[in-house]
User: What shape does this take?
Amino acid sequence: MNQERLLKILLAPHVSEKSNRVAERYNQVVFKVTRDATKPEIRNAVELLFKVKVKGVTVANVKGKRKRFGATYGRRSDWKKAYVSLEAGNEIDFLVTE
Assistant: This one.
């Protein structure tokens, strides 16, 4: 796979109460990814960037919320998130201090 494409797949870690719960209970990490990302691309991107072994990837398409600005209705963009299961003994720590 194209390494330049893999570096653009992961947009940001998704931090929420649910993502913290799955991280502790199931050894999973949640990422916000590009809308056209595939499971194999997400797996390769995580393994490339964080040097960990990935057990599996599950994706979810999140619908954008409807919002109102005065009398005008708008909508936030749809986005995709990926639940990445890590092999036992692997961990990704986003709060690294050097």
Summary: The chain has one domain: 3-86. DSSP finds three helices and six strands in the chain.
